[in-house]
């Protein structure tokens, strides 16, 4: 029935589109603003000049918001000329109105003061789905049919070179990147960041930038930088509403309101999303002892429900062309209810069942994460000189309650009469503060520029874990001090950096600099009545040489000393009792991991294609990784530890091809081979291994009303004790616009053939483990969007220039 309904919607949309195409007219809209103060220019003359007959022009006067609408244009190539008293004339060239795309939104068109009698000519280039420049990648989310109804995490998975591992951690070419939103760093712990990205609607994102060769401010980030750029809206008032629903139990609504005028802009986004996931799996572990071996086999299933409300307010105010302010207030929440079932079967050396039990788990959790950010930018009258101050504060409260009931059975599945009930309550409070000051200046020779800055980050976490066992027959809960914990974690990071960039000639530059960081962290372990303190200082130099040619070829060689610090997830000593046969906890004695990173990137960009190839070598010191060890009682302990050094050999490629104006494809692939030291191979039984990630996407626009997008990926991750294999993931979407493009209907299909599966092989000195899990990711989602955009109403007229001259 649902499928028939979707088919009916598509059929009606196609018929509507056919009717509209029978009387196709061209449309060009935009907004004219003043470059110096970002204010709208009213009364500017906008003329659309066809290439075929330059004497016939369609002329429009901009309204009070600077907006213009050039409608009823015949198909063909156009030149748009904008002029106003006291401003330099701006010409936008090579705009092609055609059957498959008959309308263009030129957004903001800045006019500069007429200090000299010159006009500006800009060649208009249509925005593709994926762009690449100097080795960096831009994913234009607004051009994708998959953006409506998606969240930021789902869109990141479709971005070239970006992957998520089995734990949901984001990586670029296998390394954890720095996340920015609108060029501002996001200083959150791993769980807070995951909640933020999963609650951020895809409809509010303009583009995602992947900076594999990051700027000096973030040169020491091991995975580069991912910058999520949000939509700012046009001059005037605008609003958007998105409603979506999916067959997997996914529903939600997101809204956007924006207002922009004379250097002042407000963007408000609010929404809520509901998700359901079902998963199942098994694990088979063989324990190997000197005189015998036994097995522990587990089967499991779970059902997870979550609801995520979110709110984001962004205010931009430009006092003048020298000073501007930005304020962001954000709130996201996650409420979840989960249930699970596990069956444990112990098999002795005679292949007989020695112990059998079943465990049911019920949990409920709530997370709240408000944050604020304030940015001030001052630009000097000297070219290239600016100072930027970014200050931020974030807070977090979470509570999670898990109840366990375990019943022991005989080999024939009859109850033994023995059971146990446990309850684990985890309360966490987080807060963090940061300030980042950046100064950039171009020196007097106009070929050398200076970039410097200082930063301070402070994070605090208060964690209370209470584990209780039910005492029978009283049916009262008694606290277990051994499995409970109470601690506070504090971390300070103080950094300073300086770098110089010199342009020897056009297309050839060298950048070099260094950063110094001091990290302090303190654990206050109240249960054990002790404190653990550590401090370390790191010097992090970096340099790169860039050479580009006029034919679109680019070559970059870079060296970076990078650092990876353990977070609270790796340091937290609290024991996770979720699986009684596999206990997990962190290691507060972990040291940071540093690496020497060498990269060589070669690329070529032309109008029809771009292609990049990268090779790299990394020497990683004090690697910290998750290690599983078997105990004498048959249980395993999973914790974090520093292992010896590791060598990494990398190769990656990303490319895009414009087959036609209607069809574009993109491909990225990355392979990294990890080689461990002889000690870890001998003692810990580590294995060298490779990680392979790949992504293929295509975008097809048969008309300006229809958009089809497909994204496919395959990933295989390696770890020191084995491999994690992940199958192909697919996301296919279709988008249709109707009612003058105010209404957008999107249909997305996720994993229609194969659902997400992970198979993990782990090999220890005295055990072998195979784990398998499958999550219900197949989903058919429909999204309905409506745009409330006010169009310009100033009169337009068609002018025959030759007739005007004769008169």
From TrEMBL:
Record's keyword terms, sorted: Cell outer membrane, Membrane, Receptor, Signal, Transmembrane, Transmembrane beta strand, Transport
GO biological process: siderophore transmembrane transport
Cellular localization per UniProt: Cell outer membrane
UniProt domain Outer membrane protein beta-barrel: residue ranges: 378-786
InterPro entries, per the entry: Beta-barrel_TonB_sf, CarboxyPept-like_regulatory, OMP_b-brl_3, Plug_dom_sf, TonB-dep_rcpt-like
GO MF annotation terms: siderophore uptake transmembrane transporter activity
Leader peptide range in chain numbering: 1-21
Xref: SUPFAM superfamilies: Carboxypeptidase regulatory domain-like, Porins
CC per GO annotation: cell outer membrane
Family annotation (Pfam families): CarboxypepD_reg, OMP_b-brl_3
PANTHER family in the record: HEMOGLOBIN AND HEMOGLOBIN-HAPTOGLOBIN-BINDING PROTEIN 1-RELATED, TONB-DEPENDENT OUTER MEMBRANE RECEPTOR
Protein name in the entry: Outer membrane receptor protein involved in Fe transport
Source organism per UniProt: Lacibacter cauensis
